[in-house]
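Data availability excerpt. The first of two example chains:
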Amino acid sequence: MKNMEDLFRMALGIEEPWFVESVDFEEIKKILTIKLDFKKGSKFFYEDKTAGISGTFAVHDTVIKRWRHLNFFQHECYLEARVPRIVTGEGQVRQTEAPWAGKLNGFTLLFEALILQIARCMPANQLKAIIGVSNYKIWKIIEKYVDEMRELQDMSKVKEIGIDETSARKKHDYITLFVDLEKKSAVHIEEGKGIETVKGFVKRLEEKGGKAEQITNVCSDMSPSFISGASKYLPKASHTFDRFHVMKVINDAVDRVRKWERDRTPALRNMRYVLLKNRENLSEQDLERVKKLELENMNLKTVEAYHMRENFQLCYQAESTEVFELLISKWCEWAERSGMLPMEQAAGTIIRHREGIIKWHTTRLTNGILEGFNSLIQAAKAKARGYSTKKNLINIAYLILGKFDFSRINRFCQPTHF
């Protein structure tokens, strides 16, 4: 039996003055309980920085506590121990912490590290089924770790941010992501998608060592709220309109032209996604369909709009900002004379946001990373089922996208390197 106790001591990483007192199996319940104790006469370190208490103290009395640990051989495993209470120099009785105790009462650090790791890629309901812990407790662990890492955030060096909203639920319910474009990590998530979200970001920035004036560049779509918010709350930042969203304006216009001609032109049916892809991304079959459409239907407005779309993309290959600006201007003139209302309206949008579009040639900023994040968050919605709140969605978004180095607060978590 002594050999078994030594085996579990090594497996658990138990160090003096702690030792494994006994190991109990409950075969029917499939529960393994490992009882720990400490050597008589041991002293324990206790620190409370707020109260100014720090030192090694003798044991006053003990309290029996129990923690859920990683499974051993398909058995639910629990650690049980007498945890010392000490008396400070002022005569106050204080509870010490066991070295294996997690952030949430009743779990070990190693068990919590496992939950954080699996929660990044598995819905809470599946995680619950595997480890036998309620959704509520899983979300409380995630919330606790996210909150502690956010307290440790340093935003003093954030200079370029990307902003994008994503739907949290149906009925126009949104959250807005603020991403450090240099580190490619979400630094703040705000409920809603209006101008106040930028105000909330700036408040958080200043709470974590930053200043509004340090943000030099903002990249977003052409949302009036983001434009107004950046102008009002980030006075030193230039605004770049993301190339992806600029092209979305053009794509929407092309598709509206296609829909207008579709009923009287059978060749345009089922061509929506084909005409919105770049030629190099088309399959051989779809490329042949495009070529056939061009040869046989050159008088179609849809074909002209499709060529305008391709020409607009070529503007981004300009070798200088001056040439880029000239090409954009020429394209807008072409669209305004096209006789196609959707293309004329697209040109109007480009003209109104001209400065931020041209700015791309200097900053080369893109919200591509946010588009990827957006898809991850939509997948994360599934992870929030079982205890579904917007708060959970935000926490799982931080867990997946925040690049938090949890090893700073849990030695069993894998260190994160930026």
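And the second chain:
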Amino acid sequence: MRFYRELKRAAAFRVVGLAALLAVLAGCGAVLDMAEDNEWRWGFFGKVKFISPVKLRIGVAPFSDDVGLGAAEAGSNLARLMSAEMAKDSNLVVVPAEAVEAAMAARGYTAPLTPLRAAEIGTDLRLNALVLGSLSEVKKYNLRKGWRRLARIVTEQHEYVNAVLAVSAVDSATGIVLVSRANTGEYDGGSGNDDFFEAGDRTGHIPSQEALESSLDDALTESYYRTLTGLAALPFKARVLSVTGGQAHIGFGSDVDLRKGREFVKLLVEEVVTNSIGDSYQIMGAPVARLKVAEVGESGAALDITDGQVAPGDVIQAVD
């Protein structure tokens, strides 16, 4: 229960019910060192491998409170914790969660963001993707699990708390959802555990601080890995900002390790497919333009157009 132990060291907690749980997460440290733990937990063949030849620049928006906890800082704190975990991966450049909040405030947007609005925020912050999340469910239940189901006479039901985080990542260049998944964390409170519920709550409506923290620990760990998997499959894309004198200009540079000589292509969009829940996907075709990085600044680059044509607003992607 590393997350819980880290939180206890970071601040003294007040036991004021479920709403206070997430409010006290402000300024806390990392959830889990998944940069080190991924290979151990998921196995060597499950380790995430990125296809992008340069680093991806991402951000995490404040999580929405679909459960109705009412804690003012809950969504922001979860976003900061998620950002801290994402920043541990050397393939990513993660902007501070505070920068995402400021960009949302400038447009008058609040969580939850639609994919279109997420893409707008991503464009404002020069992101390849924006991660969205929500605390969508907190539930308690009693159950015999595993071997307990085979020994009903000699075992008691255990009390569990599950926290469910729904997390998705939106491609800033296209507004397409890259990955969307509900991630569940589980806490086993044991049988007859007097500390499972908050003091004075014998009706069992409010899980203890420890129970919810532990289940959130698991949910955040799962969310991090699944989101990372989705981002790993994202090609590095950039929107053309302007075209002058045979050169196209983009808003990425040495900040994502972009270097002179890197090649880009503009691909033909053959078809846009929308599924039953409204998510859109692009079916890409052959290259219709080719570009090569000629000049690199800290947050911008100029690319020579070596074949075909591009215009402001076109999306190009890096190739090996």
